[in-house]
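Hi everyone,

Forwarding the result from last night's run.
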Amino acid sequence: MAKNRILQVNELIKRELSKLILKEIEFPKDTLVTITRVQTSSNLIQTKVYVSVIPENQTPRILQILNQQIFNLQQIINKRLKMRPIPKIKFVEEKETGKAERVEKLLEKIKNN
């Protein structure tokens, strides 16, 4: 039951933050920012929000922008979510997508040889 609740909280936070980021934050031109996954601690104290950025060289700048806005985002999330406690948000660079891209390239290379 508790694990199911964590999954629901993850999905809810991901959906709400995605909407907020789309509407509230200005990113550099020609930059795509995606929330790939959310991991909330079992005690609902903290949630890690994994962010993927294209092009990858913009990742540090995007994380800086997000972290500058984290207080405002947290305040809006606190008002929107009807649950207690509401986890504290922490933005993290998504490294799994880069790994997946490298695996795809290797598989394509093997396929062509």
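Strands lie at 32-40, 46-54, 88-93.

Cheers,
N.
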